[in-house]
Amino acid sequence: MTISADYTEKIPNNVDLHEDRRLQRALESWQPNFLNWWESMGPTLPTEDVYLRTAINVGREGWAHFGHVAMRDYRWGIFLAERDPDRRIGFGQHKDEPAWQQVPGEYRADLQRLIVIQGDTEPASVEQQRNLGATAPSLYDLRNLFQVNVEEGRHLWAMVYLLHAYFGREGREEAEQLLHRNSGSEDSPRILGAFNEETPDWLSFFMFTYFTDRDGKYQLGTLKESAFDPLSRTCEFMLKEESHHMFVGTTGIDRVVERTVQVMRENDTDEVVAHGAIPLETIQKYLNFHYSVSLDLFGSETSTNVANYYTAGIKGRWAEGRRKDDHRLTGDSILVDAVVDGSVGHNEVAALVGLNTDLRREYIDDCQNGVNRWNRILGEAGLPQRLRLPSVAFNRRVGAFSGIETTPAGEVIAAEEWEARKGDWLPTEVDKTYVRSLMQPVHERGRIAAWIAPPRQGINGKPFDYEYVHLA
To answer: Which segments of the protein form a coiled coil according to its record (predicted)?
Structure first.
């Protein structure tokens, strides 16, 4: 296959699209609809151009090009990781058979469903973030927002290519629906609940890119293992871009905590509202909300559907190749989170049925790394406060814990007590209003809002005060 992207084509790609004229025409007819969606549901802040990273090939070296680009002219395209002609299926009942280059008929519906769900999340986050540019704390942050947005648009293209190329008329119809659903719409909302939540401020954005995009990393990681090779290669390349989105979240929260710590120390007080910073208590509430909503994205603790996906070879585990078992799991078991005698506990189930729990635990361990990082900032400042991940049972609306309420520590409480105390643990209208009041735009080169610290370094070797965005 061609490794470098073909930029002479209307749709940049490295899948030799010109050799399949029917597919090329179908995608070219979808392209104007995509651009109309971008114009109507994408970023609202008018810009001339943005210093963006664009994929130019998928090799290990030099896969991205940086330059100022008008966003509407961004080179959205179709890029799959390089094909391994000897790749074998790594798990399930087809383990060690050659990877599939076409969709097996018996798995067609399941594969299509998984691709549609993944595809639906990509434009959803663009829609959730469309108004954030108007309140960006710096040009550096504005550029990062737009980089996330255009790459989510490219990830939509990645899934649409698979639907068009491998799923016929049904695939084309599903690709159209990806543009017709909208985040938060009453009539046609996005498929997954977290992608219908508002992202009204930059603290929410940083939490979303840390916690919810991290869910995306783990979902893509399971699909990267898929026996369906084009899906595997698509997700492998998407993961390269997804890492930047999580970097934006990780370092964004770093900088919010860092600025709050500076204000606390300069004024010898925990009461930072009067000084225009975000209290640690408020940061914790936002963390609690975004983490718990993101845990729901992993589904129920047990799932026969996911067991069937694994056995079929459609969807593997995170880091499947590093697992030290038989990669079939037919006789294995796992302890899954459950309500046991009215408390948070565990039940033993077949390992295949508990794969959602396996994946969620990988995610939780990863999330803890960020919390440890933010706590180092507090510790190095000599402060006793610490941020914490709440209990896996806290504020859950999907799975075993959806029928109970707990404190962040995991203590089961009555619904009445939850109603009385939830404002201690989740953002209240007062908290949200205060955070929004800080969201005053700073669009001048080299300047930054007072509630967040500047980054330690700029983009691609450029300084923080580089003109990352030219506003219209």
So the answer is: none
**Residue 48 structure tokens:** 């001339």
Report the pLDDT value the prediction gives residue 3, as an integer from 0 to 100.
52
Q: How confident is the model at residue 2 (pLDDT cuts 50, 70, 90)?
A: very low
29 CB burial (10 A radius; 0-12, 13-18, 19+): exposed
Tens digit of pLDDT for each residue in 440-464? 999 999 999 999 999 999 999 999 9
In the block, residue with structure tokens 């969620």: 360
CATH of 17-471, one of 3.30.70.100, 1.10.620.20, 1.20.1560.10, 3.30.1330.60: 1.10.620.20
445 closest CA partner among 463, 423, 420, 472: 463
Long-range own/partner contacts, residues 336-341 (CB < 8 A, 24 or more apart): 336/301, 336/302, 336/400, 337/301, 337/392, 337/393, 337/399, 337/400, 337/401, 338/301, 338/400, 339/393, 339/400, 339/401, 339/403, 339/404, 339/412
Condensed to tens digits (0 to 9), the pLDDT of residues 31-75 reads 999 999 999 999 999 999 999 998 877 766 567 889 999 999 998
Residue 261 near residue 377, CB atoms below 8 Å = yes
- The residues spanned by each domain of the chain are 17-471
**Do 323 and 370 meet the contact criterion of CB atoms below 8 Å apart?**
no
Question: What is the rounded CA–CA span in Å between residue 219 and residue 212?
Answer: 11
What letter would DSSP give residue 422?
G
Give, rounded to a whole angstrom, the gap between the first and last alpha carbons of the chain. 40
Element housing 336 (H / E): strand 333-340
